[in-house]
Amino acid sequence: MLLDAEGVTGGYGEADILHGVDCRVGAGEVVVVIGPNGAGKSTLMKALAGLVHVRRGSIRLAGEEIANAPAEGMIARGLAFVPQERNVFASLTVAENLAMGAYARPAAAREGSARVAAMFPELLERPRALAGSLSGGQRQMLALGRALMLSPRLLLLDEPTAGLSPKFCGLIFRKVREIAAAGIAVLMVEQNARPALAIADRGLVLAMGRNRAEDAGPALLANPEIGRLFLGGA
Amino acid sequence: MLELVNFYIIPGLVLGAVYALAAAGVSLVYGVMRFANFAHGDLMSWGAYAALAGVAAFGISPWAALPLAVAATVPLAWGVDRAFFAPLRRAQPAVLLISSFGVALMIRALIYLAWGPTPATYGLGFSPPILWEGVRLQRRHAVILAGALLAALLLHLLLARTRAGRAMRAMADDPDLARITGVGVGGVIRLTWAVSAALAATAGVFLAVDTELTPLLGFNVLLAAFAAAILGGIGRPWGAALGGLILGLAEELSSYPVLPGGAPLLDPSYKTAVAFGVLILVLLVRPQGLFRGMG
After folding, report:
1. Which of helix, strand or coil describes residue A159?
2. Fewer CB within 10 A of the terminal residue: chain B, N end or C end?
3. Quick one: what percent of chain A has pLDDT higher than 70?
4. pLDDT band at A234 (very low <50, low <70, confident <90, very high)
5. Are the beta carbons of A101 and B181 separated by less than 8 Å?
6. Domain extents for chain B?
7. CB distance B255 to B198 below 8 Å
8. % of chain A exceeding 90 in pLDDT
């Protein structure tokens, strides 16, 4: 397993939000985390990225323990994170945002931008535009591009399609498959559960900070109880 | 017309240049660390007195002592941060603000202790002004204006063109996102203090060259520096520098005799209030500051 998180317990301040969550991602795999609001999905992402304190449990990335390691060191270990909100530097230009993606290894910046430009050609049409002036969809692409600059081993995406038009949602999901095809594993939280599970290798259901179910994407979609509880009926 | 330039515009630009340097330093710390550092004025005074020590010890000019002033002020800022601000990094901004007041008093006390309350000068002596088509520019004013321009240019290059400067702007934009991209918070904070303290020391020396050294030298312009920083949109060093220039010019021009009979718009003793008049006006009309975007 590339990522092997076991019994992750933690949260902000005194109150735990995660109560012993397990989460595994294999190399090149796409795993989608779904669950109702307040299930701890975003908190799990932040705990993996080193932004939320882990009180108990272990998080291993390629066998190396990273629980509570400094967030600023994660990118060098091959773990990139795209938060749900505020995921670009609004007052920096598009080109500067991408350069920040290669901050940890400036020597790789040139190669990284070439790769990101090939994946998101429209991103570099206006390299000097301020990221804050981009549309929601463009911002999300920039955030993805920034996270991919150093070719991470694992990409964490927190609701990458939140607030996007259906057209952009489809595009983001296609890009996620492309990213995985390039050998980068993706762990993604999604409210847009059906289309996300449709492109996922596996799905993970969280509720109240605990694992509720885990299965192949299509199997979760076909599971009537999961459908009733977490996928909005049908 | 010449009188306007010689007695109002040039002094206004010189005062504005000092405000600009001070405000850029205040704004930088606010942008990266999100707190209003009221000790900035006393860092200015400290830098000015450190230059005085250099002038006295080596018989050099205050300009040549400027690197000494910077070299003495940067470690003080680092030490103060480590001792007082770092433990409060996650505290409310008001707590940091009050603690910076305390730090300001400590630095001032050190200055009183070392140099006493009597005003001093660098003893720069007289040199004939530069004359051009009736415009009189004192040599020290020329150096201050050129120095401030150079400092602003260096600050711009640092923030816009270097990896470290980009990291500072990234941190000012979003600290968590900056950490995710691998920016070490400690390093950025140390660099920010170094640049801010260097700007403070430079502003302090320039102000002392133009006026005289007193332990309250920097504190007396601190509020104007904050006004300039707010004018430019706090957290944006370039806006702060422009805000400083505007305030300096506004203060000097406010006493220009425009009224019939040669009476000034405002009595010169009201000069310092002008900065705050402008500030209140801007806060009412454009609370986000006059300029947009940090850079």
Report:
1. coil
2. N
3. 99
4. very low
5. yes
6. 2-123+134-220
7. no
8. 76
Q: Where are the domains of chain A?
A: 3-230
How far is the CA of B228 from the CAs of B50, B181, B236, B291, B295, in angstroms?
Answer: 26, 32, 11, 12, 16
Distances (CA, A) of A53 to A25, A86, A106, B179: 21, 20, 29, 15
Structure confidence at residue B277 as a pLDDT band (50, 70, 90): confident
- Exposed, middle or buried: residue B260 (CB in 10 Å: 0-12, 13-18, 19+)? exposed
Can you give the length of chain A in residues?
234
Q: How far is B117 from chain A (nearest CA, A)?
A: 45
Contacts B175 to A, Cβ<8 Å: none
Residue B245 confidence class, pLDDT cut points 50, 70, 90 = very high
pLDDT at residue number B74: 98
Instruction: Using CA coordinates, name the residue in chain A closest to B164.
Output: A103
Q: Looking at this protein, which amino acid is placed at residue A188?
A: M
Question: pLDDT (tens digit, 9 = 90+) per residue, B89-141?
Answer: 888 888 999 999 999 999 999 999 999 999 999 988 788 889 888 889 999 99
Amino acid letter, residue A215: D
Measure the CA–CA gap between B30 and A91, rounded to whole angstroms.
16
3-class SS at B286?
A: coil
Check CB contact of A232 with chain B, cutoff 8 Å. Answer: no
* Assembly ipTM: 0.92
